């Protein structure tokens, strides 16, 4: 009997799990200190936006409630998590918003689930205990989450971690908007006039110092303005009314720019006011007066650039407002925003750097003509209008590279059509002066 008892004890020791007792898990019947509600939502979903204030109120009223929120349109990882939760709960329908708590799940808000139902379920879990709905999905103990069909690959970048391939549409949007924003007639006019005045000194050193300082300071002021907009939209962009207000503002900017193509500087115009130009000329001459002293030249140019940046703001504010709202809606990390902002400013300054380089090399500068300025205003207006309409109808369309390219192509096609119509009308007026309301010569 002693030998048999020793064998049984040895077998029991060998079969016992290593590492001590398993951690306790909340089960029905045991009160829980904390419970976790998993919330999956999508940018542009009005019911998702309506559910966010409710969840914040629930977390405030129930200190034991932890709400984990996952936006699925801009993150491949969150799409995998949602697919794994759907598979775990054996669901056939995938839609947002989706809520998971214990053994329960809800699809939709205001239609299939109400605030009272969610609060009742939370109170019941806190009082009686319930299993963690995300066990096996978020703790790594279950099978790896499988991406839903059509989920893009993941890019792995140093310092920035994983970026889903759909996130590449942000880079595309950034390059396209910055490229059009960079050829703004206001900034090009100021730079060309400044360089034309500086060329009279005949000194490449003076041209280089004034050009580089001017471009750097204006870029810095613009970047700070964009960063401030992003800080605001990162807080309030989840509200549908904010997106609608931004879209309406962009449409107004677009309408004025398109109007300027057909009726240049007639009525309201997003250009540097004629009343401001004498003051700008005077400050430019003041900069040239400090050319004998390098520190004085740098300081005078920096002051001029900062002042001009504020004057130009009305010409250029439309695209930053749109771009920062789009980026904030993707819930990007601060590091990713800095990377995207750097890309924006690089593309934005390319045309000015080209003009500056040509002026230093050839000692000549080409001024922006009215015809070129009208075309640039038309192109920027059409792109701004396209992005604003998409933001109102379905912002998720900009989450993929393909649909983003279609939006940009539509803006380009509309620009080409407007130019063609304008040429036909002008040709008809020249051919028939009476139809244009002018007497025959």
What does this structure look like?
The chain is an alpha+beta fold. It has two domains: 24-151, Glutaredoxin (3-Layer(aba) Sandwich), CATH 3.40.30; 166-410, no CATH class. Helix content is 62%, strand content 7%. The chain has 14 helices and six strands. It has helices at residues 2-15, 46-61, 76-88, 115-128, 168-182, 185-199, 204-236, 240-262, 277-289, 294-316, 318-329, 334-362, 370-393, 401-431; strands at 35-41, 65-71, 98-101, 104-107, 154-157, 161-164. The chain has a four-stranded mixed β-sheet with strand order 2-1-3-4, sandwiched between helices. Strands 5-6 form a two-stranded antiparallel sheet. Helix 8 (240-262) packs antiparallel against helix 13. The longest helix has 33 residues, at 204-236. The N and C termini lie far apart (130 Å).
List the main descriptive attributes of the protein structure presented here.
four-stranded mixed sheet; disordered N terminus; 62% helix; two-stranded antiparallel sheet; 441 residues; elongated; 14 helices; single chain; alpha+beta
Low-confidence stretches: 1-29, 141-166
The total beta strand count reads 6
Strand order of the largest sheet: 2-1-3-4
What's the Cα radius of gyration?
30 Å
Helix/strand order: HEHEHEEHEEHHHHHHHHHH
The helix content, as a percent range, equals 55-70%
* Large-scale geometry: elongated
- Structural classification: alpha+beta
| Count of discrete alpha- or pi-helical segments spanning 4 or more residues | 14
Total tally of structural domains: 2
The overall pLDDT, averaged over residues, is: 76
N- and C-termini, Cα separation:
130 Å
Largest sheet: 4 strands, mixed
């Amino acid at each position: 009997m002693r030998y048999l008892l020793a064998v049984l004890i040895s077998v029991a020791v060998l079969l016992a799990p290593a590492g001590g007792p398993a951690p306790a898990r909340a089960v029905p019947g045991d009160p829980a200190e904390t419970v976790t509600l998993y919330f999956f939502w999508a940018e542009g979903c009005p019911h998702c936006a309506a559910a966010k204030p409710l969840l914040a109120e629930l977390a405030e009223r129930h200190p034991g409630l932890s709400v984990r929120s996952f936006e699925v349109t801009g993150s491949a990882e969150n799409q995998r998590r949602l697919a794994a939760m759907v598979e775990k709960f054996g669901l056939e329908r995938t839609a947002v918003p989706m809520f998971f708590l214990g053994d329960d799940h809800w699809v939709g808000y205001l239609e299939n689930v109400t605030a009272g139902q969610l609060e009742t379920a939370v109170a019941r879990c806190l009082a009686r205990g319930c299993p963690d709905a995300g066990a096996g999905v978020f703790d790594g103990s279950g099978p790896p989450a499988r991406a839903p069909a059509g989920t893009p690959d993941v890019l792995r970048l140093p310092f920035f971690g994983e970026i889903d391939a759909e996130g590449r549409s942000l880079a595309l949007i950034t390059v396209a908007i910055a490229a059009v924003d960079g050829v703004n007639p206001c900034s090009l006019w100021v730079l060309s006039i400044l360089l034309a005045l500086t060329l009279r000194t005949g000194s490449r050193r003076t041209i280089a110092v004034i050009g580089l300082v001017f471009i750097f300071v204006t870029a810095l002021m613009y970047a700070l303005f964009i960063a401030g907009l992003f800080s605001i939209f990162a807080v309030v962009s989840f509200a549908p009314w904010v997106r609608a207000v931004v879209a309406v503002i962009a449409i107004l900017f677009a309408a004025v720019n398109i109007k300027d193509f057909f009726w240049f500087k007639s009525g309201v115009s997003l250009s540097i006011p004629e009343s401001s130009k004498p003051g700008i000329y005077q400050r430019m001459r003041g900069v040239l007066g400090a050319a004998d002293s390098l520190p004085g030249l740098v300081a005078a140019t920096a002051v001029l650039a900062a002042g001009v940046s504020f004057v130009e703001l009305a010409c250029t504010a439309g695209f930053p407002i749109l771009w920062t709202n789009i980026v904030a809606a993707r819930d990007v990390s601060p590091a990713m925003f800095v990377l995207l902002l750097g890309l924006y400013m690089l593309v934005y300054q390319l045309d000015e750097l080209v003009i500056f380089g040509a002026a230093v090399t050839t000692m000549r500068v080409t001024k922006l003509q009215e015809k070129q300025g009208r075309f640039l205003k038309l192109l920027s207006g059409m792109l701004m209008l396209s992005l604003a309409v998409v933001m109102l109808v379905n912002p998720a369309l900009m989450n993929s590279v393909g649909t983003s390219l279609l939006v940009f192509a539509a803006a380009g096609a509309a620009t080409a059509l407007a130019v063609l119509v304008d040429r036909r009308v002008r040709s008809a007026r020249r051919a028939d002066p009476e139809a244009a309301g002018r007497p025959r010569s």
